[in-house]
Amino acid sequence: MTAPLTPPPPPHRRPSQPFRSSEHSEAAQGRQVPPDGAGAVTAHDQDGPGLKAEIREAVVVLVAVALGGVLLGLLWLWLAPRVPMVGDVSGNLWAVYPKDIEGEQAIGIDGTFTLLGLAFGAVSAVVVFLVRRRGGVPLVVALCAGGLLGSLLAWRLGVTLGPERDLIAHAKAVGKGVTFPAPLKLGAPGALLAWPLAALVAHLGMTALFGPRDPEPYEETPAP
User: Fold this and answer.
1) Rounded CA gap, 53 and 48, in Å?
2) Is-contact 137 216, C-beta < 8 A?
3) Predicted TM-score of the model (pTM)
4) What pairs with residue 88 in β-bridges?
5) How many other C-beta atoms lie within 10 A of the C-beta of residue 43?
6) Are the C-beta atoms of 181 and 82 separated by less than 8 Å?
7) Which string of DSSP letters, residue by residue, matches the chain?
8) How confident is the model over 38-69, as pLDDT tens digits?
């Protein structure tokens, strides 16, 4: 009678690996996994203050650019040519007419305002871009609106501080046959758009050439 055979020993088992969730796997790869709901709250919190900050910056840009119209108006008053006028009297009736009928001073007045508006638009766009390179729609809108308001301010300031607008009163003051300058007058209303259009084009060009670039999308290499 033989002894019962002893069962062979169980095969050697390797210790089971601990279970790792997807969060642990992502953490092992160096990526931080926010807790549930934290990502949505953070994105909401960042979008709110970001938009408010952009609006505040846009308001500051609008006011600063519009106030530049004071300098534009003074330069226009200083550099713009004058239209010579002369007065004549017959009895008690005064008549005022241009001294040089074929003169181009009126065109020079519009041209001076237009060139100054283009220069102010380019300079304001460069300054705004250097101060805030990220740009943004509110900033561009404020830049253009400020340029238009600045042009209107410069136009009214130049007309107000310029020569006397009452031609008959001015002719009576200087006397018969004496040449005097006509008031500043902007014959081409489109010159008011020179500043905002130049600012828009210059800012878009600066942003396209020197603005920040979006980072390349992160490509995950497959695990071996």
Assistant:
1) 9
2) no
3) 0.72
4) 95
5) 10
6) yes
7) -PPPPPPPPPPP-PPPPPP--HHHHHHHTT---PPTTHHHHHHHHHHHHHHHHHHHHHHHHHHHHHHHHHHHHHHHHHHS---EEEEEEETTEEEEEES-TT--HHHHHHHHHHHHHHHHHHHHHHHHHHH-TT--HHHHHHHHHHHHHHHHHHHHHHHHHSS-S-HHHHHHHH-TT-EEEPPP--S-GGGGGHHHHHHHHHHHHHHHHHSPPPPPPP-PPPP-
8) 444 444 444 444 788 889 999 999 999 999 99
CA distance linking residue 176 with residue 179, whole number of Å: 9
In one-letter notation, the amino acid at residue 117 is G
Residue 61 and residue 149 in contact, taking contact as beta carbons nearer than 8 Å: no
Q: How far apart are CA 121 and CA 204, in angstroms?
A: 12
Residue with tokens 């279970």: 19
pLDDT tens digits, 3-16: 555 555 555 555 44
Decide: 79 and 108 in contact? Cβ < 8 Å.
no
